[in-house]
């Protein structure tokens, strides 16, 4: 939603401007990272300025390490947000994917460019074209996530952020 995009932008800009902040962790709420965009918003008039792609670019450009703490699902735009992060930690029960292709929509926030850079073209093409959900253990093998944990994902992400 636009409220989530605005909160991400505000939080990232505050963190980058604050010298006491050494790293950033991005997580979802209630055990879910993000199920992606609300497709009803695709048909609404475009708002100028704030877009998912610009927020992901802001994450990617951050001079401070940004770690995604993935719980539940990171689908569509949610996965694309994690691809902009410098590191990704997933709970063992998490799933990731780009399911919008199953309804004829291509990932629109540069996930089709970032995913192949991260995991290679063959694996990325499979994920991009099938829309299947990748379990965390497979995501680790592919290099999509840096670590899989059975514990509190946010605490593990904060530990990694402090380490790097």
From TrEMBL:
CDD domains: crotonase-like. The keyword Iron-sulfur does not apply. GO terms for biological process: fatty acid beta-oxidation. GO terms for cellular component: peroxisome. PROSITE patterns: ENOYL_COA_HYDRATASE. It comes from the Eukaryota. Keywords: Isomerase, Lyase, Multifunctional enzyme. The keyword Isomerase applies. GO terms for molecular function: (3S)-3-hydroxyacyl-CoA dehydrogenase (NAD+) activity; delta(3)-delta(2)-enoyl-CoA isomerase activity; enoyl-CoA hydratase activity. In the C-terminal section; belongs to the 3-hydroxyacyl-CoA dehydrogenase family. This is Peroxisomal bifunctional enzyme. It comes from Corythaeola cristata (Great blue turaco). The gene is Ehhadh_0.
């Amino acid at each position: 939603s636009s409220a989530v995009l605005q909160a991400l932008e505000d939080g990232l800009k505050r963190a980058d401007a604050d010298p006491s902040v050494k790293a950033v962790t991005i997580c979802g709420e209630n055990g879910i990272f993000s199920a992606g965009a609300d497709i009803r918003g695709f048909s609404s008039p475009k708002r100028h300025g704030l877009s998912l792609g610009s927020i992901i670019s802001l994450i990617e450009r951050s001079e401070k390490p940004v770690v995604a703490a993935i719980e539940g699902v990171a689908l569509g735009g949610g996965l694309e947000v994690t691809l902009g992060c410098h590191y990704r930690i997933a709970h063992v029960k998490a799933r990731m994917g780009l399911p919008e292709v199953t309804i004829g929509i291509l990932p629109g926030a540069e996930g089709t460019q970032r995913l192949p850079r991260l995991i290679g073209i063959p694996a990325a093409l499979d994920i991009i074209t099938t829309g299947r959900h990748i379990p965390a253990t497979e995501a680790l093998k592919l290099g999509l996530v840096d670590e899989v944990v059975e514990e509190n994902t946010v605490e593990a992400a904060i530990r990694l952020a402090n380490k790097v």
